[in-house]
UniProtKB/TrEMBL annotation:
Substrate binds at residues 213-216, 235-238. It comes from the Bacteria. The active site is at 185 (nucleophile). GO terms for molecular function: hydrolase activity. Pfam families: Asparaginase_2. CDD domains: Asparaginase_2_like_1 (cd04703). Transmembrane segments: none annotated. The record marks 184-185 as: Cleavage. InterPro entries: Ntn_hydrolases_N, Peptidase_T2. This is L-asparaginase.
């Protein structure tokens, strides 16, 4: 396994579609991760600490701040973790869980790597995670904003045909189609001082979307990847990101010796400018973030 190369490093993001005004939440989460790194020395513990702080923040599209689905009631969340000690866990379409990233971490201790839907929710109850589904005024306001803002002819998501939502609608409530997009993910990548790497991500998904929709966040190699050369996390519309296996593709370039900043920029350049995408990464010698939007993020290095 990797030998110690560098001081520990943390990069945290709050989503490619999020507001830079909320960057203080990323700074706090990065501090939380560094503090955790001091205590346990474990890159994965630090990444999970950062992401659960962002899930609890309420301003980001993850955990307590997750977007409401188009029925205005359901929240479906995805999360993932991976590290260079072989731990890999993810959950998709889970409901009523306060910290999906902790659930993804728990999946890594089961015989499986990914649990979805009702099974994932039941797993949360089986390991003692209480039901938690408060909907904040902020979430309701965001939902109202999407629903009112978007009754027009603007494409709902760049590159996606909004009429298909109409055709395949699978909610119990009737379609009241918005024409806009709410997206975002939170993520953290960490390099431990022992040379290990970890990544953790969490999202409330995107809107508009069909019930049961899963993006890139819980999909290995698309939304997240960690290996002996580093760790990468992506944010942006999952339907686009998965087509490029974005996290693994960028990881591969870093592993081939491309400077980290160039690898991140090359990853972003795979997408048309109207498709908001963001990336964060740590490597043996570097750490950074890159986005074609005003993505809030924070980078911190251990002293
Ligand atoms: N990647 C997330 C998804 O598609 C959303 C985002 O990061 O903006 O679910």
């Amino acid at each position: 396994m990797s030998k110690p190369q560098q001081a520990g490093a943390v990069v945290v993001h709050g989503g490619a579609g999020a507001s830079r005004e909320n960057e203080d939440g990323c700074v706090l989460a990065a501090r939380r991760a560094l503090a955790q790194l001091e205590v346990s020395g474990e890159a994965l513990d630090a990444a999970v600490a950062a992401v659960s702080a962002l899930e609890d923040d309420g301003r980001f599209n993850a955990g307590s701040g997750s977007v409401l689905c188009l029925d205005g009631a359901t929240v479906e969340m995805d999360a993932s973790i991976m590290d260079t000690r072989g731990r890999l866990g993810a959950i998709a379409c889970v409901q009523s869980v306060k910290n999906p990233v902790l659930l993804a971490r728990a999946v890594a201790d089961t015989p499986h790597w990914l649990l979805a839907g009702d099974g994932a929710t039941r797993f949360a109850r089986a390991i003692g995670m209480p039901e938690s589904a408060p909907v904040s005024e902020r979430q309701r306001a965001d939902h109202r904003k999407i629903m009112t803002q978007l009754a027009g002819s603007v494409p709902a998501m760049p590159g996606l045909n909004i009429r298909l939502f109409d055709r395949f609608w699978n909610y119990n409530t009737p379609l009241n189609l918005p024409e806009g997009v709410a997206c975002d993910t939170v993520g953290a990548v960490v390099r431990g001082a022992d040379g290990h790497f970890a990544v953790a991500c969490s999202t409330g998904g995107s809107a508009p979307s069909l019930l049961g929709r899963v993006g890139d966040t819980p999909i290995i190699g698309s939304g997240f990847y960690a290996g002996p050369e580093g760790a990468v996390a992506a944010t942006g519309i999952g339907e686009h990101i998965v087509r490029h296996l974005l996290a693994r593709t960028v990881y591969g370039w870093i592993g081939d010796g491309m400077p980290l900043d160039r690898a991140l920029q090359r990853g972003i350049d795979l997408f048309a400018p109207e498709i908001k995408v963001g990336l964060i990464a740590v490597s043996r010698h570097d750490a950074g973030a890159c986005s074609n939007s005003d993505m809030p993020y924070s980078k911190m290095v251990q002293r």
